[in-house]
Design brief:
This is Aldehyde dehydrogenase. One of its GO terms (molecular function) is oxidoreductase activity, acting on the aldehyde or oxo group of donors, NAD or NADP as acceptor. With 515 residues, the chain is an alpha/beta fold. It is built from 17 helices and 21 strands. The protein folds into 3 domains: 227 residues, Aldehyde Dehydrogenase, Chain A, domain 1 (3-Layer(aba) Sandwich), CATH 3.40.605.10; 193 residues, Aldehyde Dehydrogenase, Chain A, domain 2 (3-Layer(aba) Sandwich); 32 residues, no CATH class. It has a 7-stranded mixed β-sheet with strand order 13-14-15-12-11-17-18, sandwiched between helices. Strands 8-7-6-9-10-20 form a 6-stranded mixed β-sheet, sandwiched between helices. It has a 3-stranded antiparallel β-sheet with strand order 1-2-3, with no helix packed on it.
C-alpha cells in the first residue's frame, strides 16, 4: 500500500499527489505541489513582510505568540484529527507530542525571548576595557526556511518557526509531502491569531518544492529536520549561496543497562523509548546493551511489556502503538528485521507485519542474538524494534555504543547516579540521559543537536534562539576619535613593549589583568 500516489500534473503545471491514510488505507485527498515559481512568490511575500515584523518589539511579537497558543488550544481537536489521519499515530501521542509540546515551547520562548534577545553591554577585554565598551545587538536574519519531517509534522514545523519569528524573522516552512496539512495548519492558526500577512507561510510540495526553498538566494537561513541523506543535499544547496543552516538528522540511540539498574523502570523505559510514535522518533531507542548478570531478566521484562501493547485504531484513546506512517519506512523496518533474523537473530515477540493489509502495522518487536554487523545495528531503523545485546561490563557497553556513525542521543540506566553521569560523559552524542528516555528535544532551555552524522548546529537553548539572529557587536570608544595612531616612531614602539612587559611579565599586571 503506497501512502503517496502521483497523479500527473494539472493545468497549472503543478504535480498532483494522492494521499492515503496509513492506518486504514482510505483515500484522504489530493494535494498540489507548489512549483519553483510558487516558492519564489511566497519568499518575496515574506521579504516584504519582514521589516515591519522586525520593527515590532519582542514584547509585541510575544503577544502574537500567546494568541497563537490560544488558537492551538481552541482548535486542538481539529489538529489532532489531521495528525491522526495523515500519520496513523495514537491519540495520546498526537495530543502529547503535537499539541502539548508546541504549547509548552510557546510558553517557554515567550518567557525567555526578551531576556535572550535583549541588547547586551559589556567592556572590551583586557586593557581595552578601560577605553571601549561593546554593545551586542541580536539582529534578525531576514527570511528563514524551515523544512519539517513527517514523524512530528506539527511540532517540528512549529518549534523552529516560533523561535525564528520571535527573533524578528519571517518564515517560509515546508512539511513532508506525506503529512502536508499537519504542517500547513500552522499557517492557518497564525492567520486566525491575527499575524500580519506574509509573516508565517507554509508550502505544500515534495522534494522539488523543498529544493526550490533551500536553494533560493532570498533565504537567509535554513532549519532542516530529517534524514541524513536529505540533510546532506540541503547542506550542498545552502553552500551555493553561503546560506547558514542547521541540520537535525537521524540517530541510532544506544541504551546501556548496568547490572545495578532498576530493571522494571528500565524495561518500561526501553519499550516506551523504542515504540512511542511507532518508533518514528529521532531520540528513540535503537540499540540496547545489557550487562550479563541482568540480561535474561531484562529481556523477559521487555518482552512481556512489548507484547502487551495495544495496536490499532479499534482501541480508540487506549491505543498504545499506531500505524507505520509511511510505506517506505515499513520497507526499511522489514528489511532490517528480516536481515537480522537471516543472520541468526531471534524475536521474542513480534517480528512480522500484522493486520488485515489495509493499514501499515508492525508490532513491537524484541530481538536477541543479533549480529552486530547487521543493518539493524548499523543503520537507522526508525520503527518499533528493540535489539538487545549482552555485554560483559560497562566498558564493552561504552565501546559498542560509540561504534556508530550517528551521535544524537542515548541513555544510561543505573541506581548509582554518579556512575551514570560518568558513563554518559563518555558517550559520543549530542546529548545523553541517565535513567530517562529521549526527552531532550522537549527541554527547551537546553540545546538539542547531534554529532557525527546526526547533524550540525542545535535547536533550543539560548544559542538555539540566538541562532536565528546575527550577533552584531558595536564598539564604542570612551574618548572621541583616535589621536595616537600615526605616525609610527621609536617612542611608540618602546611604549608598546613596556606595556606588554607590564601586562604579562609583572606581578601587578597579572593580578590586574589575569594570567
Amino acid at each position: 500500500m503506497a501512502i503517496i500516489q502521483p497523479k500527473g500534473t494539472n493545468e497549472e503545471g503543478r504535480q498532483v499527489l494522492s494521499l492515503t491514510n496509513p492506518a486504514n488505507g482510505e483515500f484522504l485527498y489530493d494535494i498540489e505541489c507548489q512549483t519553483a515559481e510558487d516558492v519564489n512568490a511566497v519568499i518575496e511575500k515574506a521579504h516584504l513582510a519582514q521589516p515591519a515584523w522586525a520593527a515590532l518589539s519582542v514584547t509585541q511579537r510575544v503577544e502574537y505568540m500567546m494568541r497563537l497558543r490560544e488558537q492551538i488550544l481552541d482548535q486542538q481537536d481539529r489538529i489532532i484529527d489531521v495528525v491522526i489521519k495523515e500519520t496513523g499515530k495514537p491519540m495520546q501521542d498526537a495530543l502529547t507530542f503535537e499539541i502539548y509540546a508546541v504549547c509548552a515551547f510557546i510558553s517557554y520562548w515567550c518567557k525567555q525571548a526578551s531576556k535572550t534577545l535583549k541588547e547586551e553591554t559589556f567592556r572590551a577585554s583586557g586593557i581595552m576595557g578601560l577605553m571601549k565598551k561593546v554593545h551586542m545587538q541580536y539582529c534578525p536574519l531576514g527570511v528563514v526556511g524551515v523544512i519539517a519531517p513527517w514523524n512530528g509534522p506539527f511540532v517540528l514545523t512549529a518549534n523552529p518557526t516560533i523561535q525564528a519569528l520571535l527573533a524578528g524573522n519571517t518564515v517560509v516552512a515546508k512539511g513532508s509531502e506525506i503529512t502536508p496539512i499537519c504542517s500547513k495548519i500552522l499557517e492557518d492558526l497564525c492567520r486566525d491569531a491575527g499575524f500580519p500577512e506574509g509573516v508565517c507561510q507554509v508550502l505544500i510540495g515534495d522534494g522539488s518544492t523543498g529544493a526550490a526553498l533551500t536553494s533560493s538566494p532570498m533565504i537567509d537561513k535554513v532549519a532542516f529536520t530529517g534524514s541524513v541523506a536529505t540533510g546532506k543535499k540541503v547542506a550542498e544547496s545552502c553552500l551555493q549561496n553561503l546560506t547558514p543552516y542547521s541540520l537535525e538528522l537521524g540517530g541510532k540511540d544506544a541504551m546501556i543497562i548496568c547490572a545495578d539498574a532498576d530493571l522494571d523502570k528500565a524495561a518500561h523505559g526501553a519499550v516506551w523509548g523504542g515504540c512511542v510514535n511507532t518508533g518514528h522518533f529521532c531520540c528513540g531507542i535503537e540499540r540496547i546493551y545489557v550487562e550479563a548478570p541482568v540480561y535474561d531478566a531484562f529481556v523477559e521484562k521487555v518482552t512481556k511489556i512489548a507484547s502487551a501493547l495495544r495496536q490499532g485504531q479499534q482501541f480508540g484513546v487506549d491505543e498504545d502503538l499506531g500505524a507505520v506512517f509511511w510505506d517506505r519506512q515499513m520497507s526499511i523496518i522489514e528489511d532490517h528485521v528480516n536481515d537480522a533474523i537471516a543472520r541468526g537473530a531471534k524475536p521474542t515477540t513480534g517480528g512480522k507485519r500484522v493486520g488485515d493489509g489495509k493499514g501499515l502495522y508492525f508490532p513491537a518487536t524484541v530481538l536477541v542474538d543479533v549480529d552486530e554487523s547487521s543493518d539493524l545495528m548499523k543503520k537507522e531503523t526508525f520503527g518499533p524494534v528493540l535489539p538487545i545485546i549482552k555485554v560483559a561490563n560497562e566498558e564493552e557497553a561504552i565501546a559498542k555504543a560509540n561504534d556508530s556513525n550517528y551521535g544524537l542521543h542515548g541513555s544510561v540506566w543505573t541506581q548509582d547516579k554518579l556512575k551514570g553521569l560518568r558513563i554518559a560523559r563518555r558517550i559520543q552524542t549530542g546529548s545523553m540521559a541517565v535513567n530517562d528516555i529521549g526527552m531532550m528535544y522537549g527541554v527547551p532551555n537546553a540545546p538539542f543537536g547531534g554529532v557525527k552524522e546526526s547533524g550540525m548546529g542545535s535547536i533550543n537553548g539560548q544559542n538555539g534562539l540566538r541562532g536565528y539572529t546575527h550577533p552584531k557587536p558595536i564598539i564604542v570608544g570612551r574618548y572621541a576619535g583616535m589621536d595616537s595612531g600615526y605616525p609610527h616612531d621609536q617612542k611608540k614602539y618602546d611604549q608598546m613593549k613596556k606595556l606588554m612587559n607590564f601586562m604579562w611579565q609583572s606581578t601587578i599586571g597579572r593580578l590586574l589583568l589575569g594570567p
